Amino acid sequence: MLKFVKNHMESITGIEIYPLISLLIFFIFFVLLFLWVATAKKDYIKTVSQIPLENQNDTTL
Fold first, then answer.
1. How far is C-alpha 56 from the geometric centre of its chain's CA atoms?
2. In angstroms, rounded to a whole number, what is the distance separating the alpha carbons of residues 23 and 28?
3. What is the pLDDT, as a whole number, of residue 13?
4. 23 vs 8, 10, 16, CA distance in Å?
5. Where in the chain are the domains?
6. Tens of each residue's pLDDT in the chain, 61 residues
7. What is the reported pTM?
8. Contact 4/10 with Cβ under 8 angstroms?
9. 35-46: b or e for each residue (b if 16 or more CB lie within 10 Å)?
């Protein structure tokens, strides 16, 4: 089955650019995410980390 898909994909012109585009999107996303985490203020990180603990007793079933 992989042989069928590979032969079909080779017949499409310009398809070799899509893996490069997806790699660039993946790489850029994680670089930006790393930069955001590295530059985030410590107070903001502490506040956000406490959010799940604030409403422990307020859950109603």
1. 29
2. 8
3. 84
4. 22, 19, 12
5. 18-52
6. 677 777 777 788 888 899 899 999 999 999 999 999 999 999 988 898 888 877 666 555 5
7. 0.59
8. no
9. eeeeeeeeeeee
The owner of tokens 């893996």 is 19
* Helix residue ranges, H only, 1-61: 2-10, 17-39, 42-54
- Amino acid, res. 49: S
What is the rounded distance in angstroms from the CA atom of residue 28 to the CA atom of residue 21? 10
At 54 the pLDDT is 75
Write down the residue that tokens 């203020």 correspond to.
Answer: 41
Are 15 and 9 in contact by the 8 Å Cβ rule? The answer is: yes
